[in-house]
Amino acid sequence: MTKVLVSDPIDQAGIDILSQVAQVDLRTGLPPEQLREIIGDYDALMIRSGTTVTADIIEAADKLRIIGRAGVGVDNVDVPAATKRGVLVVNSPEGNTIAAAEHALALMLSLSRHVPHAHASTMAGGWDRKTYVGNELYKKKLGVVGLGKIGSHVARVATAMGMELLAYDPFVSPERAQQMQVKLLPLAELFAEADYITLHLPRTPDTENLVNAALLRTMKPTARLVNCARGGIVDEAALAEAVEQGVIAGAALDVYAKEPLAADSPLRTVRERLVLTPHLGASTTEAQENVAIDVAEQIRDVLLGLPARSAVNIPGLNAEVMEQLKPHLQLAETLGQLVSQLAGGAISELEVRLQGEFASHPTQPLVVAALKGMLSTALGDSINYVNASLEAKDRGIHVLEVKDAASRDYAGGSLQLSSRSSKGNHSVTGAVFADGELRVTSIDEFPVNVTPSRHMLFTRHRDMPGIIGQIGSVLGEHNVNIASMQVGRRIVRGDAVMVLSLDDPIPPSLLACVHAINGIQEAHPVTL
Ligand SMILES: NC(=O)c1ccc[n+]([C@@H]2O[C@H](COP(=O)([O-])OP(=O)(O)OC[C@H]3O[C@@H](n4cnc5c(N)ncnc54)[C@H](O)[C@@H]3O)[C@@H](O)[C@H]2O)c1
Ligand SMILES: O=C(O)[C@H](O)COP(=O)(O)O
To answer: Does residue 308 belong to any structural domain of this protein?
Structure first.
């Protein structure tokens, strides 16, 4: 029975989808040791930000095929460890964009009008209309740090509210900024000029403690900071001090370096001008339904052997690409299997050559498929689209990608894999015909026209009378039935290749007999 563990609270719509294909166990709040103990039973894990999936947990996850993050941030998952183990990581990049953007705007407005403090004071019996005089956002400068999906939505709404938009995002082009009516500035200038600053960038080694005491001191004393992105980007102790001492006019945080926020955090001692929420950015009914459906559908599909649309650790290989390139990926995988079995030893270099029309396809997915096929000979099922590139890199395999659009052999182009190993060099070429059928079109530069089949025998031999008959006899003696046979040669009585498609596997004793035939130079059994 396929089993999915859901270790954080997710919307029922997601559970319903998962239940179509698996037994779903909802166990929230598990301590790490307990999660490690039980994870070995599960094929899939669905989480939010509450579960931290460490390398240790992934190590214990013997059956795990996919980790689904019902949200955006995967910083609570050790993605490199998952990739190494061939575990797919998926998320929902857009399901909570609006919720997070609206929360950032809510925090900005709350700060400006002292909503939380005025509310608390009124609830406590007060009627204080003097202390809580606020500021308008209209005509103020808003600095957006990180102009991605959430930052862009904040910018759009803020523009509509009459704010002047500044932004810092090293990966956004001036054209895009102009289109959004946003003025791009260096980070230091943005901090010095803005009246409000809102953070919408990921936490990475580069952005850790980006907003520190020194940067806070460059802000206007009337300016306010909002962080609805990730904890750790802001130095919390420095921020508490800056708000307390009036270095800045206020701050609002939804995310923290360590969550839940420690009881003794210096932030909890700031009484005024600081608004804190417990990571509520994505907590709307709408967003929770969106992300739960988005991620549960991907888990369901992957468990059914289909591709995922938002894979974090196989870039460039989403469901759309997989569908469009299905036969081409299949060809690359088959040629990878073929070339590794012809090589018969550790391959040190693989050249992937996209010829003619093939050169119009994205290279990366085809290279990954070729590597998956190539490595599957030695690594079996443990190799997949997730870890193929990494495994090849770890094995020191040098991968070359060549696009040769000018080559004209078949209407749809062709794909050639050439391997270099201690035992020699081999190359195989294949094409996808109009009916979607795969063909091997050359082996070691000898032209052939072979439909790949489960059991095959490839020989390299002298083109001389009687040799084909002898091979046929040997196969017959071993009760191995020949389904089809092809010979490819360049010159009469020179070297030739023969490809036999067989109905039965090749026993080792048969191979020894083939090798013993006079004129046979190489014989390679291939199983696809
Ligand atoms: N509080 C919440 O509940 C909540 C909800 C959803 C998302 N998030 C977080 O919000 C953040 C933004 O999410 P998104 O969906 O908009 O992501 P996104 O990938 O669409 O946008 C991130 C932007 O940050 C930019 N960026 C990267 N490094 C930068 C740097 N050093 N300086 C400035 N900009 C940089 C990128 O170019 C990109 O444009 C993420 O950290 C995400 O985890 C929080
Ligand atoms: O990255 C995200 O999607 C947000 O931080 C939301 O986290 P949550 O799913 O724990 O609410």
So the answer is: no
The helix (H) or strand (E) run that includes residue 319 is: helix 319-324
Residue 251 resides in a domain: yes
CA 205 to centroid of ligand 1, rounded, Å: 14
| 525 within domain boundaries | yes
- Does one domain contain both 79 and 169? no
- Residue type at position 316: G
| CATH code: domain of residue 335 | 3.30.1330.90
Ligand nearest to the CA of residue 147, numbered in listed order: 1
Protein residue with least CA distance to atom 31, ligand 1: 207
Residue in this structure with the two tokens 């770890």, named with its chain if needed: 394
Please give the ipTM for the structure prediction: 0.99
Give 47 Cα–ligand 2 centroid separation in angstroms: 10
The pTM score is: 0.83
Residue 160 domain-assigned (yes or no): yes
Match 């070429």 to its residue by tokens.
429
Three-state SS at 471: helix
Number of domains in the chain: 4
Per-residue pLDDT at 321: 79
What is the pLDDT averaged over residues 284-313?
94
Q: How does residue 307 score in pLDDT terms, banded at 50, 70 and 90?
A: confident
Q: What is the DSSP string of 245-263?
A: TTSSSEEEES--SSSSPPT
In tens, the pLDDT along 481-492 reads: 999 999 988 888
Q: What is the pLDDT of residue 210?
A: 97
Pair (125, 237) in one structural domain:
yes
For residue 459, what are the domain limits? Answer: 455-528
Ligand nearest to the CA of 99: 1
Q: How far apart are CA 223 and CA 172, in angstroms?
A: 25
Tokens of 83: 């990739």
Handedness of CA 39, 43, 47, 52 (dihedral sign): positive
Residue where one domain finishes, among candidates 431, 452, 473? 452
